Task: inverse folding
DNA sequence: GTTATTATTGAACAATCGTTCATTTTTATT
DNA sequence: AATAAAAATGAACGATTGTTCAATAATAAC
């Protein structure tokens, strides 16, 4: 594999992820990538096959990183619900200024690609369902911990959460008032706790 | 202006809108547009200045069309809230199979473009705020008609609605079960009626 | 019907796109 | 130290990108 000595494969994928995240799949050129990861075309193609191949690994890396972040926050807060809340805060609010894009890379990809990229689109959907499963697990843990009503359907709650996150991230791209967005996130979590 | 005799300017913009809507700004090439609107580069540039210029008019046309549709539905149903519900149903559910893209063109554009296209991005934000205003007006009308609690903040409700629509349209791109999506739309409107 | 004005054409432009591959450099094996 | 295997290079490919402009066609004015 390419460049195993100095920089490892994961580092390359991470940098590529950030570029794709910022500029999108079509918006990112192979020459953009070459500069950012400091590799020549031949090496990139030897290691990842194609622009699609590298993008696919970027999507997977992005998803895995997100799920890991959620799990870490659950541990550090010592509560599934608080961990989830911290995750959503970071995702919707902090990410708006600190991340390559305020959007969710998966949502951005679903939005950008068409049937011309059927395989990438299918992979993206698969990864979003993977995120949904992580949410279901977390919400079920919150039920066990007595933080959420046990009568509620965690699958529906997870879907609801996905819609809120994706919607809020786009909306935060229009309305840059952090307090407004923070309030909207809070009211999402109020619907979890009450009823 | 180009081609005033046979096909009018609005028809050209409408076709361009559908193509941009399907493929995105970068995904749409000038040659794609040339085929769809049956015009040669010179004529297009004489009439619209640039790819950005035509896109800007497409965004405006899309927004205006959407607001007009909402107003028509309010009239035909004879109720602000029912009109709004029909609009959201059409937007989130029907559009998923019948429109060039299941996504909102404005949300898609916010998601796709970066600071490199600052002007287009600013125009898109302006248009989304225009949609928000149309929602505020409609929700206020619904209050007057006694369909929504008059104590509620219509600005917050309109923001909430924007988040739901944008989020649901993306989610509908992953989960294609129409009933699931329809249920989620229904529960959005339940929050309007109750409390 | 002739002239002036406006609209349309489509070939051509430089720049960039994703990708390939013969060559060189590095690493591993003996 | 010599040889074999693997990795990295970067020039070059054909295709496509957005855009321009001299030439042509259509329309308007008189």
Result:
């Amino acid at each position: 594999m390419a460049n195993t000595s100095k920089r490892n494969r994961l580092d390359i994928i991470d940098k590529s992820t950030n570029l794709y995240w910022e500029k999108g799949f079509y918006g990112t050129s192979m020459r953009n990538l070459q500069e950012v990861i400091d590799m020549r075309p031949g090496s990139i193609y030897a290691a990842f096959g194609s622009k699609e191949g590298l993008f696919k690994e970027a999507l997977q890396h992005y998803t895995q990183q997100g799920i890991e972040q959620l799990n870490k926050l659950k541990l550090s807060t010592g509560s599934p619900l608080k961990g989830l809340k911290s995750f959503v805060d970071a995702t919707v609010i902090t990410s708006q200024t600190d991340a390559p894009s305020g959007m969710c890379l998966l949502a951005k990809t679903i939005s950008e690609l068409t049937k011309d990229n059927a395989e990438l689109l299918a992979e993206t959907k698969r990864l979003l369902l993977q995120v949904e499963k992580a949410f279901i697990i977390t919400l079920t843990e919150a039920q066990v911990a007595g933080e959420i009503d046990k009568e509620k359907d965690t699958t529906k709650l997870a879907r609801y959460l996905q819609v809120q996150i994706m919607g809020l991230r786009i909306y935060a791209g229009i309305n840059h008032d952090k307090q407004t967005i923070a309030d909207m996130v809070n009211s999402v979590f109020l619907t979890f706790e009450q009823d």
Q: What stands out?
A: The interface with chain A takes residues 22-24, 26-27, 101, 103, 107-108, 110-112, 114, 125, 128-129, 159-160, 162-168, 170-171, 173-175, 180, 184 of chain B (CB under 8 Å). Residues 5, 29-31, 41-42, 45, 50-51 of chain B lie near DNA strand D (CB under 10 Å from a C1').
